[in-house]
Specification:
Radius of gyration: 21 Å
Order of helices and strands: HHHHHHHHHHHHH
Distance between the termini: 53 Å
Largest sheet: none
Shape: globular
Strand content: under 5%
Number of strands: 0
Number of domains: 2
Structural class: mainly alpha
Helix content: over 70%
Number of helices: 13
Length: 255
């Protein structure tokens, strides 16, 4: 055991590799953090509202903290809060969760290539994948000098951290604050609009964005505002798979 410690501290190459790895992690953190700042504002604000909501239902602060830490499902956490007040029905809870978070199935499929070859970090990134982390990691152009695995890891970790902190604040101080939380969900809608506009301005060609908007609009007209999300995502995924090669050629020619 002592020989191992001595070899690590006396071997210049090992010391260099260790320091270089630590530097890569720090560089990736610094590169990822600015992209998550808009999420920070939205998640902390919504997390506080969630903590206050849980408090209003009679739950102590530990409930929103643990639910945010281990469930981390945004809107489903609000639904889960009401499920805790009624007779336990595991099948109903499972079906409801699948319906609310079915979009993550498509997120996961589209991130298979992104997550390839990044090691064990992938396990947490799959668990912590949310709308906002997907929006950043799937669209951002990561600089060549930044380790992409650590970059995406920190985007996921920071977003998760923001939500837990917001829920903790709301849960702890919820009994002292009373305000109308109606309409707070529009905060995240606004955030996605900002991300979409920023990405639109970065791209030279807008084929994917136009396809997404067009197919979503068609699904909305056909299925209505309550049931259009899943059909829209299936249509978008199918069309993008069919047109993948053509879109890749367009992107290459644009660069």
């Amino acid at each position: 055991m002592n020989d191992t410690k001595e070899s690590f501290h006396t071997n210049p190459l090992r010391i260099y590799n260790h320091m270089n790895k630590r530097n890569q992690i720090w560089v990736a953190f610094r590169a990822a953090f600015p992209y998550t700042v808009p999420i920070l504002a939205g998640f902390v604000f919504l997390g506080i509202a969630y903590g206050i909501f849980m408090n209003s239902l009679g739950f102590s602060a530990i409930y929103p903290i643990l639910m945010s830490l281990f469930i981390f499902a945004g809107s489903m956490e609000f639904v889960a809060a009401t499920l805790l007040l009624i007779t336990f029905g595991p099948i109903n809870a499972l079906v409801l969760t699948l319906m609310v978070n079915a979009r993550h199935l498509f997120y996961g499929i589209s991130m298979l290539d992104k997550y390839r070859g990044i090691g064990k970090k992938k396990l947490y990134m799959i668990y912590g994948l949310c709308d906002e982390s997907f929006a950043i990691n799937s669209t951002v152009n990561i600089p060549n000098f930044v380790d992409k695995g650590w970059f995406m890891f920190f985007v996921t970790l920071l977003n998760h951290f923001y939500w837990v902190i917001g829920s903790a604040i709301g849960g702890i101080f919820g009994s002292y604050v009373k305000f109308n939380t109606e309409g707070l969900e529009f905060v995240m809608t606004s955030l996605f609009v900002v991300i979409f506009i920023e990405q639109w301005m970065k791209e030279k060609k807008h084929h994917s964005a136009v396809l997404g908007l067009g197919l979503s609009t068609i699904s909305l007209l056909i299925f209505g505002g309550t049931h259009f999300i899943i059909p829209a995502m299936i249509a978008i995924l199918g069309v993008l798979i069919l047109l993948r090669k053509q879109l890749e050629k367009v992107e290459v020619s644009a660069t």
